[in-house]
Amino acid sequence: MTIEQTLQELTAQAVKTLYNLTIDPHTVTVNDTPKNFVGSYTVVVFPYTKAAAKNPEQVGKEIGQYLTDNLVFAQDFNVVKGFVNIELTNAYWLQTFTHIIHHENYGQAPASGKKIALEYIGPNTNKPLHLGHIRNMFVGHAVAAILQANGHEVHKVNIYNDKGINISKSMAAWVHAGNGATPQSAGLKGDHFVGYYYVLYNKIATQQAAPYREQGMEPLEAEKLTPIYALAQQFTQEWEQGKPSVRQLWQTMNGWVYEGFAETFNMLGISYEKAYYESECYELGKKLVLEGLANGAFFAKPDGSVWADFTNEGLDQKVLIRNDGTSVYITQDIGVADLRYHDFTPDQLIYVVGDEQIYHFKVLKLTLQKLGKPYANLIYHLYYGMVDLPEGKMKSREGKVVDADDLIAEMLQTAEEQTRELGKTEGMNPHQAQQLYKILGLGALKYFILKVNAQKRLLFNPRESIDLQGHTAPFIQYSYARIRSILRKFNQNFLLPNYPINHLHPQEIDLITEISRFRQAIHTAAETYDPSVIANYAFTLAKSFNKLYADLSVLNNPDEQTNTFRVALAYTTARTLKNALHLLGIDVPERM
RNA sequence: GAUCCCAUAGCUCAGUUGGAUAGAGCAACUGCCUUCUAAGCAGUAGGUCAUUGGUUCGAAUCCAAUUGGGAUCGCCA
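^ Those are the sequences you sent over. The predicted structure of the assembly is below.
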């Protein structure tokens, strides 16, 4: 039982004994005592003043006394208004700390038996990754790690939207204007190479559509009349028919893209256990839809298209198979869900996908319910907000995007410049220095994105480089590196079973308190699927250590016991910082 | 038109199941490196928690309305 739970139980007992009021211990509010008051935990007693028929101050004193009398670890208490602040004994803190230092994986929950399949990344194969994917990857990776730390079995999977009109557009432009070029001949990363032709397609289509638009036609309609669109459309149909030359070209261009993606994933430390491909799932999706049509879950329109009706659920009708018999986006997701369910038999299917698709996943869930699938209710759409540029939302078609690879390169460069400026590379060989730039640059980028609650929109200004000071990953990494430096200097065994320290410094207690919160932080982050909980936790812990470091000496105290104890405390802090950052996919340097 | 999301310091964000005087970082200003790494620490200044009403001992937090911003409602993905 945690100390909070103990305090809840005892408060319920106190209320029963003192005022003959029976309450559920879970309803007792126990908070961390704010910094400007004395104490560690605070019990709120306002709710019991009526039953006690006394003022809050009086009730606080009585309950405080009861708690102090009945809790071994209670040292003292004070009452401010209706708040009872409990001070705990040094013995409690030492015991807490001893427990943590002996548990390398403190914070990790025991196995829950819950199995989760988590989908993330989900790129289209017609263009390179951008800042939106970066947020997706960081959030997905972090949430997976956090759920794992909370005891769940997590299977990370990816989905490639590898077929359809957008890929056909890149193909059409390449056939139209590529002259047999390859990424090698063009000197481009594969995904950028294919993306170049996607942008080129849009240029050509815009040019060809100009006369129609001048007649007042909508751009989307005008595009459909262009020869380049006709070619893309033709590829799409021939692809569905399985025409070998089209399949061959498709495979080649997708192959280039996958090579490019792999490089970026590798750079970012992003991985997945299994990839699904739309091209391999849409037929299963169609089959399931047709089964639904046969058993009356869906209906057909006169033109042959297949629909689901959600008007009873307050939504619209939704097309599932087009009148030409081809599948739409949701059709593949039906097939993917089915495959994934049978691959992993998970207890939950998490989809890390942007909030623009909230409606899509609502419909997907309802569609699977209509099909009577057991996994319909396992679906959880973990959505994140769009990334805004100062000018507004990113738009791929207009080339208004922040490219992932460019951004990574800029971060490494920023990290290098600042590191050199501070003269931190002294004594490092070029390889070590490069490693450090990467740890710091990518750490700063990941932290910048993950410290914001994933569901909120994120503002990114490409003209202002991401800070390396303040509320950032390097701040936390710096605390870690400082501690590593101390440990190198100390160079003795400090894992003693007992610390005969009678006078714990308040800042030492603060730090132990902060370290001990890691378990709760993981729990909260997992429950809310929110990496920012961990990001903020790590920052608070680092700050707490930095303050102690500035005010007290860790290893230059006159008495050896204090040195040993503080080094152990620093060691545990570093370990916790490292573990916390690891959950965010962020590395730590030994020196910086 | 309908559904959903958001609104906290100049800027970017925290703020637990409702709890004390709403907190950080950046930017501005002031101190602190002969002692363990100054990517740090301490301090000053900065707020009508969008507005109004309601529930409550207590509301940034819950409810309603209003205002402003955004997303979605494609035989795009």
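The longest helix of chain A spans residues 190-214. The mean pLDDT of chain A is 92.

Shout if you want it in another format.
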